[in-house]
Amino acid sequence: MAGSKGNKNAIGNNGGHPPFYNDPKKLQLACDKFFEDCKGNNDPVTITGLALSLGFCTRKSLLDYAEKIEFVNIIKRAKLKVENEYEKKLYSGQPTGSIFALKNMDWHDKSEIDHSGNIGKKDISDEEFAERLAKANKILGG
Fold first, then answer.
1. What is the pLDDT of residues 103-134, one digit of tens each?
2. What whole-number distance in Å separates Cα of residue 66 and Cα of residue 73?
3. pTM summary value
4. CB count, 10 Å around CB of 31?
5. Which of the residues 2, 15, 73, 123 has the least number of beta carbons within 10 Å of its own beta carbon?
6. Of 110 and 5, which is predicted with more confidence?
C-alpha cells in the first residue's frame, strides 16, 4: 500500500521495511555467530538477544521470518537452541527464570486430568450389563 497523497517521505514506498535477509545461508551464518558469541562471552542465550544480534527491532520481526518458507527451518532450529539452553538451566540451583521462559515457549507444568468419566469406558449391551450385574451380585452374596 502506497503512502498517503502529499507525503513526500512515502514517495516510492510500497510499505514495510525491506527484508534484512534474502539469503537463507546469510541468516544461518548470522544465527551461528550469535550462538558462538554467547558461548565465547559467557552470555545467556535468549530470543530477544538473537533478534537484536540479527538486526531486528522486535522479537516479532524475528518470529515473522518463520513464516517464510526459505527461513522456517533456520528460525525453528535457532528457537530450539534457545529453548535447549533454558532447559539445561532447569537442572541448576535456580531454575525459576528458565521455568518462566519455557512456559512462554508453550511448556506446561500442569497435569491434565480427564473428568468426563470416559476413561476406559466400553459400551456394552443391556443384556451384557445385566449378566455382569448378576455375576457381581452372586460374588457379593446378594
1. 877 777 776 666 666 655 567 777 877 778 77
2. 7
3. 0.63
4. 20
5. 123
6. 110
Cα 117 to chain centroid distance, Å, stands at: 31
Q: pLDDT value at position 101? A: 83
- Residues 51-90, buried b or exposed e (16+ Cβ, 10 A)? bebbebeeeeebeebeeeeebeebbeebbebbbebbbebe
User: In the structure grid, which three cell numbers stand for residue 98, read together?
Assistant: 528458565
Digit-coded pLDDT (tens) for 31-55:
999 999 999 999 999 999 999 999 9
pLDDT grade, residue 92 (50/70/90)?
confident
What is the per-residue DSSP string for the chain? -PPPTT-GGGTT--SSPPPS-S-HHHHHHHHHHHHHHHHHHTPPP-HHHHHHHTT-SSHHHHHHGGGSTTTHHHHHHHHHHHHHHHHHHTTSS--HHHHHHHHTTT---S-----SS-TT-----HHHHHHHHHHHHHHHT-
Distance of alpha carbon 29 from alpha carbon 52, whole angstroms: 15
